[in-house]
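Fold this complex.
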Amino acid sequence: MAINAFYNEILTDHNLHPMHKYNLKDPNLILEGLNPSCGDDIVLQLKMDDNGVIVDGSYNGDGCAVSMASADMMLDLVIGKHKDEAKRLADIFVRMIKKEATEEEIEELEEAGSLRDISHMPSRVKCAVLGWHTMEELVDKEPIKNPGEHSGEAVSTE
Amino acid sequence: MIDVNKVRADFPFFAATDLAYLDNSATSQNPKCVMDAEWQFYVDSNANPFRGIYELSERATSAYEHGRETVKDFIHAKSTKEIVFTRNASESLNLIAYSFAPMVLEEGDEILVSILEHHSNMLPWRMAAEKAGATVKYLEVDITGEVSAEMVAEALTPKTKIFAITQVSNIMGRENDIKTFAKLCHDNGTYIVCDGAQSVPHMPVDVQDLDVDFLAFSGHKMLSPMGIGVLYGKEEHLAAMPPFLTGGEMISTVSYDSMTYSELPHKFEAGTVNASGSVALEAAIKYIQSIGFEDIQARETMLCKRMLDGIKDIPHVTVLGSDKPEEHHGIITFKIDGVHPHDISAIFADNNVAVRAGHHCAQPLHICLGIPSTTRASVMFYNTEEEVDRFLDILSQIRGAMGYGD
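Structure:
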């Protein structure tokens, strides 16, 4: 018997075998997403070209499976896309959790659509949204030349 | 011996849910007699205590003060002057840090705080130290949570003015030998402040025998409603301390530019008091006494033993604190390799079991142990063997649910 249908294979697989959980060699956008009360902490690293296309991305950090897997799925989806398109997808993701997105929109989220049931667990919504919100904030920042210049600022979904 | 079905029939909560409530260290459920006592106060005794000279107000005063008398006897204080009602243990501890600490602290002094402490018995001391130019020194522990007399003796210095320590840790469940620590402190010219939030509901506490200077605890962790707490302080200290809050009731006379304070303990109870809370706390104490601590402790130890025995057979689960069930006082805090406590508690929640995840308001302890966060199951005498078995059954499946092969 499955003791928890929410933690499906897609989620646990992204958590245990993440594709994007490492430090990028030459990111030009870095932002920390931190939820102090539950301890979810990710550092999102993106490489964006002059046209605003996210050519590569990664994250690192600690937190629950929901926060980690959600960030991994988010990067799966937005790498290779223009920042405006990435923000549009993040908006769908947030609306999906508020149960305001259409089935067609949720389909666009690919595997991240599997997190739709998080809306039944209000205390975990902030975990699922952390990576997406951090990305939304990050893509509008001025790219930096030297990753060492990371300001150390952080955003939160709490 | 406790007949658990009979006991549970006293709690309306259990009739309304099949949730296995294993978060009793956070707050406890209330028996009907406690709810009834609170309700009854509002039916026939509700007026502002100490204010009116009509009979109803006197009845309210008498009900409120009767609760104080019961608390005094319960913890074996010398006098009701030593029992101050607060909102909760946190407020009691803050009261001491604001009112008492500045009287005894000088620049360069030390406050010794055990790393086991709940933030409520840590942050007020940091604030008091900062104001006085004193420093906070931490008494560190390992994963067993043990604080020995030798450790305390070694940590006390001629500069240590206050030692803040919990009687039972809300993570480890382990009891500290407060009586021995108090003697060490007093021989050193140090005051000892004891957090009784996790001990007073579960064991007999005698403040005169322990010889603590202060003891704080909350009603809501001992079968009472939220919003009533207690500060015990030795009369000589309370008498010398300035008020914490000012306003109504705490004064005897006020002129244009001066005031004199009320007698103890009213000096520390500014504003309209929580009279129904006192009445409810009294009913809770009487209920606990009707069951008896001997039976309460026997049952809570039995439930902890059942948990610890079950956990031994589940790989990748580590319990913090002692390996002896009688040293847990209802509290079993654990970690599972590779699984975050919020995922653990979410799976428990999905299976109708309430446990607590996070740092349990003891973040520095987690830093000290090198563990980011933990999960805690905490029982009271009203929990059943079946609830513990449900807990163990789910616990054994969590790694699997999170995609691990074993």
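Chain B has two domains: 4-23+292-401, 34-288.
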